[in-house]
Amino acid sequence: MLATAAFALSLLAAPAAAPAAAPAAANLRFETKDGTLYVRRGKVRAAIDVEDAHPDMYPDLALGVTAKADGTSWTLKVDTNCQGEKTLRFSMAALEARLEGAAASALARRKQWDGAATGFARAVALDPGYAKAATDLAIAQLRGGHRPEAIATLLAAAARDRVWVVARAAIDRQLAPIASVPEVRALAARTSGHATLAKLRKTGVAFSAAGGLFAWDRILGNAMTEGPEPMELRVVDVATGRLLARLPYRDDDAKGVDRALADLGFEVEKIRSRDLSAPTRTQEPEMRGTVEEIRVVVKGGRVRLSADGRPVGEARIGALYTSGWAAKVRGGVLVGAAVNIGDGCGAWVYDDVVWIPLTASP
β-pairing, 243-249 with 266-268? Predict the structure, then answer.
């Protein structure tokens, strides 16, 4: 059946098999609205993620952007209001993929499923790493009556990003009709995990031996509004500390998130953390502490680990922190920081957590 599905998928996505050259850089524009950064071509615009901008938290504040084309790529400098300037780099193909995805999403909202599927297929062809476009393609195919093609799409996407596909199949109700088919179920960990969202929120972290993963739950809170708080499950590679997936969810997705944690093999980890102290005489926010002979310094949005005067690990973390903790576990160090933004930027807070594998034995 998979060979037939793959062949049918190739027919459906035929217009995207050899995407045309991207339009000239001059055809692209960048703009901001309500705290969100967009790329625009004509009447089509697509949101570009700026992780620290948090538009849900302060949509009324201006977000500045300057852009420069450099051959087949763009460099954007984005003023994220209260957290300084961020430099982002995107290939032309990646930006075109977002625009194709935005146009396809408009068709999907009008239930023009085959047209939407063709657009999402073009987005995936332009940027094979665009995992959201791949699962959106599977949904459009499924809603359009192309079930075998939808299954084939998920399997192809999982070869590039298994974490995203397994999690979305568990959380997204639109994928429910094919989430339980044997081919898709085979993507899950052989042994289901026992972590749940409730346990994760109580203890903070979970690890999965299947694939070497670490997960934690990130919630943004805003004292200035009673609206829903943005939430996402974050999945990190244990070997490198690299963020693999940001999985947004809503309050009524809790059962789906539990299924995703189980399917990815996550087990809650009990850790013994130590609080970090904040010196009062430093010129900028800083936190320090020692955990099992490893010195932890959090300053300037970076975490630096050292042992016997030698660096043994480093990672980026949210700035403007007010408190934090550290714990050594599984050959690495977990560092958490309470990031509290105020002074005209709203009154919101989130916990930032990073996993830092040790690069040398302490």
Answer: unpaired
- The predicted pLDDT at position 310 comes to 94
Taking 50 as the pLDDT cut, the residues of the chain under it are: 1-23, 53-58, 343, 362
Q: Got the DSSP string for 109-175?
A: HTT-HHHHHHHHHHHHHH-TT-HHHHHHHHHHHHHTT-HHHHHHHHHHHHHH-HHHHHHHHHH-GGG
Q: What is the pTM of this model?
A: 0.83
Q: What local confidence, expressed as pLDDT, does residue 140 receive?
A: 98
Please report the DSSP string for 23-52 in residue order. PPGGG-EEEEETTEEEEEETTEEEEE--TT
> Amino acid identity of 165?
V
Nearest to 233 by CA among 251, 213, 249, 220: 249
Domain at 2-185: CATH architecture: Alpha Horseshoe (1.25)
Q: For 46-58, how does the pLDDT look when each residue is reduced to its tens digit (9 = 90+)?
A: 988 776 544 444 4
85 Cβ contact list (under 8 Å, min separation 6): 77, 78, 79
Residue 266 tokens, joined: 């996550």
Could you tell me whether strands 231-237 and 243-249 are parallel, antiparallel, or unpaired per DSSP bridges?
A: antiparallel
Q: Where in the chain is CATH 1.25.40.10?
A: 2-185
